[in-house]
Design brief:
It is built from 12 helices and 5 strands. The radius of gyration is 25 Å and the shape is extended. It has a 5-stranded antiparallel β-sheet with strand order 2-1-5-4-3. A hairpin with a 5-residue loop joins strand 4 and strand 5. About 50% of the residues lie in helices and about 15% in strands.
Length: about 250
């Protein structure tokens, strides 16, 4: 029998397996879950290997004391108790965690409380990600952040790659290669995507004619806009508007 809340019916009928297995395939992310006594109940393959085991079954039921150095284990227990007692998550904890060689390394940990069907806190679930790996992964974006911001701000203006290269302190060739490697797009493709996003906002929120939308989004004319819009979204601007129409914002 259905309840008044269809979401609860949907959630109650779900198998937890797909959600659990999602964490088995997240690159660079360790996943774990503990019961209210601090015993490990789950661990994705990355977490299992990092703890020195081959199979998840080998760590089930173990506490942090059996795996980690005493000072680290006490820190993990203290955070777990805080999460369960406060019933609130602890996010973005920068702490030491053994790396693949067993040496302590800085990691970013997120911990959230787990609740049973009666609403009682019954454990902790969390993820652990390498702080150094995250910093290394985001570094290329930070190095080109000013350039990307300039493109986004001046998207209606013609693209001046030489000027952008000077901003980044690179030659045009070096800049083009680095930009494509970082954003998986050439500077021109990136600019076109920004223009199309702006055009989508105008199409959805205003009743401007398509030609006016094209010009206000930085395109040379209607045909230039139509070609790029269809290439990016696979349908015409008018068809996209019909699918995503929304009343214009009320005047303030």
């Amino acid at each position: 029998m259905l309840t008044a809340d269809p979401r609860q019916d949907w959630l109650a009928g779900l198998s937890p397996a797909p959600f659990r297995h999602l964490f088995d395939h997240l690159p660079g992310t360790l996943f774990f879950a503990k019961d209210r006594h601090g015993r490990l109940m789950m661990g994705n393959p990355a977490f299992v290997r990092r703890c020195g085991f081959e199979r998840e079954e080998q760590l089930l039921g173990l506490t942090d004391d059996a795996i980690f150095p005493p000072r680290l284990a006490e820190k993990y227990r203290r955070d777990d108790r805080h999460v369960m007692q406060s019933r609130k998550p602890l996010l973005g904890i920068i702490e030491l965690f053994p790396n693949a060689e067993g040496r302590p390394e800085w990691f970013v940990t997120d911990k959230l409380p787990l609740f049973d069907r009666q609403g009682a806190c019954c454990g902790v679930v969390g993820t652990v990600r390498s702080y150094e790996a995250q910093r290394t992964a985001i570094a290329p974006y930070l190095e080109l952040a000013d350039v990307a911001e300039r493109i986004q701000r001046d998207f209606k203006q013609p693209l001046d790659v030489a000027r952008l290269a000077r901003m980044a302190g690179l030659s045009v060739r070096q800049f083009s290669r680095k930009f494509r490697r970082t954003f998986q797009a050439t500077p021109r493709d990136y600019l076109m995507r920004i223009r199309i996003l702006h055009a989508c906002s105008l199409l959805q929120r205003t009743d401007l004619p398509i030609t006016a939308v094209a010009l206000q989004s930085g395109f040379y004319d209607h045909s230039d806009f139509a070609r790029h819009f269809r290439r990016q979204l696979g349908l015409s601007a008018s068809a996209w508007r019909q699918r995503n129409i929304r009343a214009p914002d009320a005047p303030t």
